[in-house]
Specification:
It is built from ten helices and three strands. The protein has about 220 residues and is mainly alpha-helical. The protein folds into two domains: about 5-145, Ribonuclease iii, N-terminal Endonuclease Domain, Chain A (Orthogonal Bundle); about 155-220, Double Stranded RNA Binding Domain (2-Layer Sandwich). Strands 1-2-3 form a three-stranded antiparallel sheet. Strand 1 and strand 2 (about 185-190) form a beta hairpin. The chain is globular, with a radius of gyration of 18 Å.
Length: about 220
């Protein structure tokens, strides 16, 4: 793991407890003292901050529009982009297997690490500081959101596409759950009649894994 001084500057936050930042950057493949619990906390804090800001920024938006905008901001690929802007992959502590397989480039690992950092900032400071921290990285994206143009989430889009062609709805099955109860990773299969192959998605919750699988199906269909 590289020296964290430069990363602290990029984060625009100096940790009082640097051990929290080190834990946030540690993948479960490297140590039992890893970032899964911090990622769980950060995910919750992130959702709360974005929900509050969207509610205040878009007073005319419906609940569905607010939900779709929130999904577009907190989804894994958006957070992975932020993580790449921070060169977060250079600072991750990964096990040898993940290093060899290029885990430092994987969207899910990068996104989870960024969420873990949010959780670490929350524990290291307070709610107001963490709120500002989240907006430092996602505030401009939030302001650019348009309630009328934000795409629905992948599961909804896939379902509506199949319904329009009078095809059976997708089937989702959990095929693996790893980790302890408070910090699990779910692997979900998605099957549709139109594709011979079964598509898998991975996420820190069943919902996230299903969304990841649905997104991959949409990409397979060229949507």
């Amino acid at each position: 793991m590289q020296d964290l001084t430069r990363l602290s500057r990029e984060l625009n936050y100096e940790f009082k407890q640097e051990s929290l930042l080190k834990t946030a950057l540690t993948h479960r493949s490297a140590s039992s003292n890893n970032n899964e619990r911090l990622e769980f906390l950060g995910d919750s804090v992130l959702g709360q901050v974005i929900s509050i800001e969207l509610y205040l920024h878009f007073p005319e938006a419906s609940e569905g529009e607010l939900s779709r905008m929130r999904s577009s901001l907190v989804r894994g690929d958006t957070l992975a982009i932020v993580a790449r802007e921070l060169n977060l992959g250079d600072y991750l502590n990964l096990g040898s297997g993940e290093l060899k397989s290029g885990g430092f480039r994987r969207d899910s690992i990068l996104a989870d690490a960024f969420e873990a950092i949010i959780g670490a900032v929350y524990l290291d400071s307070d709610q107001q500081t963490t709120h500002k921290f989240v907006l430092h990285f996602l505030g401009q994206r939030l302001e650019k959101c348009d309630p009328n143009s934000v795409l629905k989430d992948p599961k909804t889009r896939l379902q509506e596409f199949l319904q329009a062609d009078s095809e059976p709805l997708p089937e989702y099955h959990v095929v693996a759950i790893e980790g302890q109860a408070h910090a699990q990773t779910f692997e979900v299969e998605c099957h549709i009649n139109r594709l011979d192959e079964t598509i898998k998605g991975i996420g820190s919750s069943r919902r996230k894994a299903e969304q990841a699988a649905a997104q991959q199906v949409l990409e397979k269909l060229g949507l």
